[in-house]
Amino acid sequence: PLDHQKSVLQSCCNTTICRGCSYANKVREIEARLQPTCPFCRRLIPKSKEEANVSLKKRVEKNDPVAIREIGMKHGNNGDHELAFEYLTNAAELGDALAHYLLSLFYRDGQGVEKDEKKGLYYLEEAAIAGHP
Q1: Facing residues of 37 across strands?
Q2: How far apart are CA 125 and CA 8, in angstroms?
Q3: How far apart are CA 85 and CA 95, in angstroms?
Q4: What residue ranges in the chain does DSSP mark as E strands?
Q5: pTM > 0.85
Q6: Cβ count within 10 A of residue 36
Q7: Binning pLDDT at 50, 70 and 90, where does residue 1 land?
């Protein structure tokens, strides 16, 4: 998996690409005077947060684990840890490694769930098995 510090998540297709690829795509578009598109799926980049959220919700409806995790993270960042936990659990069940890791933190810190070191270690191990660094 890509290092999340050196990559960017594309909201159109929920694909994570390295920042270098994203930069190269932008240079190509500027030089050729093209509209901004996703370097992976080539769809037009959403022009607003509303457009990006509509795309994200469509991906959630299709059971995309990355989209489900992203919705969960938004809820967690907004302080709704119980709802975040539900979304992250769903994403983890669909195989998302980062969701497994985040669930380990929820159990470690007791956010949205009762603290449980054993479950925290379980999800940490699942994250590692799934390829989380």
Answers
A1: 44
A2: 25
A3: 15
A4: 7-10, 15-18
A5: no
A6: 12
A7: low
Distances (CA, A) of 52 to 6, 19, 68, 93, 111: 21, 19, 14, 24, 27
Q: Which two tokens stand for residue 17?
A: 């690409």
User: Quick one: DSSP state of residue 33?
Assistant: T
- Amino acid residing at 93: E
Buried b (16+ CB within 10 A) or exposed e, 74-90: ebbeeeebebbbbbbbb
Please tell me the total number of residues recorded for the chain in this structure.
Answer: 133
Going 130 to 71 to 73 to 113, the CA torsion angle's sign is negative
32-73: per-residue pLDDT in tens?
999 888 888 888 888 888 988 888 899 899 999 999 999 999
Angle at the Cα of 77 from the Cα atoms of 68 and 46, rounded to 5 degrees: 55
**Joined tokens for residue 106:** 């929820």
Which whole-number Å values give the CA distances from 57 to 4, 65, 94, in the listed order? 22, 12, 17
SS3 14: coil
Here the tokens at position 1 are: 């998996």
